[in-house]
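Below: protein 1.
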Amino acid sequence: MKKTFLLFTLLISSFVIGQEITGVTTTGDKYSKAIAKMTSEYESNNYTTFDEVYTDETVFMINGQNFTKEQVRQAYMAHHALLYNDIALPWSFTETTVYDENNNNQVWSHFYTNWTGTVKRNGEKVQIPVFASFKWIDGKVAISSWIYDPTVEMTEMKKAGLLK
């Protein structure tokens, strides 16, 4: 009886485990390289790859709020022109997972970094941890989700008159 119960438990467990999310994660793939190139270009206020990987239909979610491609592009440009000097991403890590057919073969890239810059208004040096995820469809980013502490950015945008 114990053997039958053990066999039954192992059989059921294998079915449950077999239904987990699976996929292949890499770092040197074309998607990870595109994200790394785009974020590197951002440091020098260049948006070539940004314009290549995003479409006008891309859903941008930044800390839970939705934005358009143009709104995000203008905000990034304001970082350089109005708010900060010496913008850098001193380290970053990007990985991409291609999920299996159980998950509709979705492709997601995940990006981790520390954003650094110097506030133009007062010279304060700032470091902000950033996490972002990108859902790819047909070689373009369909969803771009960014999470970071916006406290300094909101303060500086208000001081610069960009927010009320």
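Below: protein 2.
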Amino acid sequence: MEHTPPPADESLRNQFFETYGLRVLKSLRRIIRAGDIHSKKLNQEFHITAPQMICLYSLQKNGSMTQSELAKDVDLGMSTVNGIMDRLEAKQWIVRNRDDVDRRKVYLEITDSGKLQAYEAPALLQDKLSEALQALPELEQAAIALSLERIVELMGVEHLDASGNLIATDKISEALPEDKQNG
């Protein structure tokens, strides 16, 4: 039984994978793991999930909004947001208020304790990344963005919505309850 060598293009593919492909996959896995670890820490230490935190941040930033407006802002489905709002309401971090004129409309509002929770919880992982990226030269920022967009294309996942986890979470003193501002 004679062993035939693999075709040249297959050998090149294997060489590429060993040289670059594995590095890319390991890097993506590290990014995913960092997100998972951060989410678990947030849940264990602050009793809130990343999607709940994102919804709180959105309400803190935008003020009163309907559930459909919130779902669109955080890029989550309506049923997902409804479940999140149920849990945040049970913790008294948000309230639901019916519109005085159109009783079908329900507005979500963050409470003072919800504002305090949003302020005291650690920054979302992407906040650290955002700060680090802003410190890079613009050309390097563009190269990173283009490379990641190309990975999305290569994976064929352009149709997937980006998670709402990528919102900015500026923590401004106006978002705090009045008794917690200025010290």
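The mean pLDDT is 82.
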